[in-house]
Model the fold of this input.
Amino acid sequence: MGDYAAREGDLDATGMRFAIVVARFNRDITEELLDGAERILRKHDAADVSVLWVPGAFESPLVAKRLAASGTVDAVICLGAVIRGETAHFEYVAGETAAGITRAALDTGIPVIFGVLTVDDREQAHDRLGGKEGHKGEEAALSAIEMVSLLRGLP
Done:
């Protein structure tokens, strides 16, 4: 077995620039996701945070890709809430949003974080806003910080 060194990024966001793309659909939920993400970015000393609102989660990947390709941010965090009971085309919206966010990251080489809740009902969404499932907005921001840090240390 060859040389192997385990690495992970740290959580110091000093000097890092972030954009947060937030879906207006289910705004009561997405505002809570945004609050959590902003709280974490402030706590970890992010240099700059821009917030951009889009109509729904489905529109997030295009804006995220444009931002990631701009050279003005180190990471993009996409926040949204797709609720099965409120969206007849749940599978399409959730699946295509995830695929688009992944593509934006791979096409640009910039971390584009999937912070979109895909849940069956509003109760499950609220469980992910600081309830028994943690706070997914905070988790998305932590992932963004760690990925920027990790990528900075790679060739």
Observations:
- The beta strands are 17-23, 48-54, 75-83, 112-119, 129-131, 134-135.
- Residues 17-147 form a domain with the Rossmann fold fold (CATH 3.40.50.960).
